[in-house]
Write a structure and sequence with these properties.
Blueprint: E1 2-8, H1 29-37, H2 42-47, E2 66-70, H3 79-86, H4 104-114, E3 119-123, H5 126-140, E4 144-147, E5 152-158, H6 164-177, E6 186-193, E7 199-200, E8 206-209, H7 216-222, E9 226-230, H8 233-236, E10 244-246, H9 251-262, E11 268-274, H10 276-282, H11 287-306, E12 313-317, E13 336-341, E14 354-358, H12 362-371
Parallel strand pairs: 1-11, 1-12, 2-14, 3-4, 5-6, 9-10, 9-11
Antiparallel strand pairs: 2-13, 4-5, 6-7, 6-8, 12-13
Helix pairs in contact: 1-11, 4-6, 7-12, 9-11, 10-11
Length: about 400
């Protein structure tokens, strides 16, 4: 059986009940992007996007897919938290953040191991930090270390000053150091290039995640299923539970490689993340760019759906919000999107199925395991029987 999950990174579907705790009451990534730009998403709307509660896209009289939203029970609104919960890991405590930068004991250990100094060491926008610290970095060769509202230790370096393999090595050192008391969810290599104000070399970005507890992906792999991670998906799970990993440069590349892999033989799961919504447009508060990325995915959707066999299924989901009209540059605490397409099933289930607000993101992983006949005893409740 061919299953596929495509994560529209940060395409949130409206505030969660606890949004007040995160300062996100009123955030709605989908609605505010569409309202700010006036774009239409006809193919997503046909699946049932506009039939979701609170979503103001065009409503389908008879959706071709099943539709719902997912609640995140883990505390947090970052990539690792959302993706881990997708595959059955519900966190009791949020990943640690460092709003004042990393303490001297961390940075002293980092410089001792790397033999360098460092610049910045405080929360910063990724585009602004290279403008503000790039000239000093080019002069000294010291890495630019910064964090954000997420649990991340980010290291930026110019490709003409620091070889990419050296940057990756520095990240590996940081990953070894940032455990236990100082554990962060991800260490991220952030190379940049060119002349001032510089350009981020996102295709060379690399994420170094904490190793998650056992996930649905591990169960699938142990059962002999194919588990194919496309884009930054394998990084998020510390490369645990995959049988194949496929690198992508951007959303366009990710869509193309997902389509190609769907058209090739496999028995199991293709799991893709399309990161540009978040990294290029959400954090930069660019609703026009965000909308255009949604339009691009919407235009590609018919080809993706056509590539599924009759017994397959495509799950379109999101891991958090990043409302491009919201104050600041942080993610927003929102419901995850849930759209599911099963070829040949709309005739049997007219109008698709309203899946409601799922109690946890982990219902996604439980459903995938159920569909593939793989035992999963962890968090989540399968809704596969609703899709038959």
């Amino acid at each position: 059986m061919k299953l596929a999950i495509i994560v529209l990174d940060s395409v949130g579907a409206g505030e969660l009940p606890d949004a007040q705790q995160f300062g996100d009451v009123g955030a709605h990534t989908i609605n505010h992007t569409l309202e700010a730009t006036g774009v239409k998403l006809p193919n997503l709307s046909a699946l049932g996007l506009g039939n979701l509660p609170t979503v103001n896209a065009d409503k389908a009289a008879q959706p071709t897919g099943s539709y719902g939203r997912m609640r995140e029970v883990s505390p947090g609104k970052d990539t690792s938290t959302g993706h881990w919960e997708f595959m059955g890991v519900q966190l009791e405590h949020a990943f640690q953040v460092f709003p004042d930068g990393f303490p001297p004991e961390v940075m002293d250990a980092f410089t001792a191991r790397t033999g360098t100094g460092y610049l910045c060491n405080k929360p910063y926008s990724g585009t602004e930090v290279i403008k503000d610290f790039g000239p000093d970095h080019l002069q000294t060769g010291d890495p630019v270390v910064y964090t954000s509202a997420d649990s991340v230790f980010q290291i930026a370096a110019h490709l003409d000053r620091v070889p990419i393999e050296t940057l990756y090595h520095w990240c590996e050192i940081a990953r070894e150091l940032l455990q236990g008391e100082y554990a962060v969810a991800r260490v991220i290599a952030r190379p940049f290039r060119g002349e001032f104000p510089y350009e981020r070399a996102n295709e060379l970005r690399r994420d170094y995640s904490l190793t998650p507890p056992p996930t649905v992906l591990d169960s699938l792999k142990a059962a002999g299923k194919d588990v194919i991670g496309i884009g930054k998906i394998p990084d998020i799970y510390a490369h645990q539970g995959f049988t194949q990993e496929i690198h992508t440069d951007n959303n366009t590349d990710g869509i193309a490689k997902t389509l190609q892999r769907l058209q090739e033989p496999y028995d199991g799961l293709v799991f893709t993340n399309l990161v540009d919504f978040d990294s290029k447009y959400g954090h930069r508060r660019d609703p026009a760019g965000y909308a255009q990325a949604l339009v691009e995915f919407d235009a590609a959707l018919p080809q993706l759906l056509a590539a599924l066999p009759a017994d397959g299924a495509l799950f379109i989901v999101s891991d958090h919000g990043n409302d491009p009209t919201w104050p600041g540059t942080d993610h927003t605490r929102e419901h995850g999107l849930l759209l599911v397409y099963r070829p040949g099933h709309t005739a049997q289930v007219p109008g698709g199925q309203a899946l409601g607000d799922r109690a946890t993101f982990a219902d996604l992983g439980a459903t995938v395991a159920d569909a593939l006949g793989v035992a999963w005893q962890g968090a989540g409740e399968s809704f596969w029987n609703r899709l038959k």
